[in-house]
Amino acid sequence: KIQSLSIFTDNASPILGNPNAPITMIEFGDYxxxxxxxxxxxxxxxxxxxxxxxxxxxxxxxxYIILGQDSINAANAAHCANDQKLFWEYxxxxxxxxxxxxxxxxxxxxLHEFANTLGLDMDVFSTCMSDLKWKELVNLSSKDGQKLGxxxxxxxxxxxxxxxVIKIVGAQHYDxxxxxxxxxxxx
Length: 187
Known about the structure:
8 helices, 13% strand, Glutaredoxin
């Protein structure tokens, strides 16, 4: 049990789902990470359909940078998109264009291209990127992860209404998440 949720919810994405959902799931991830990409494509949609759209779970994404400068820039870009209320759309765009670790798919040119595809105001986005506006938030998010014992990505924390925390390490199968969510909801 934890005293305060702030280490989980500070320096994070906006909430995906109902803010009053009984379960909060925090994902620590790096946009270039192979297993974060695997989770996004194999598991996340089922969680969204069955638990987020039904108001049972809300998700926050927190950056945990392990793969260098392109990861920092991609994280900053997602928060720049959030300035225009398109965080989760940009988050999906990143994983839908994922092409390995440090292969150049998340370089600055591509990050701008993704923003343009989503119809973001490019002047605002470009300024946000060149100022590295969210660099400190991304750094603090990674530090939050270190304090919580995150050592790899993705790492998830499932928090119930009593502030009890269950840690899930790695891109686990949907059934693992389902079992945990259902047992918490049955309490």
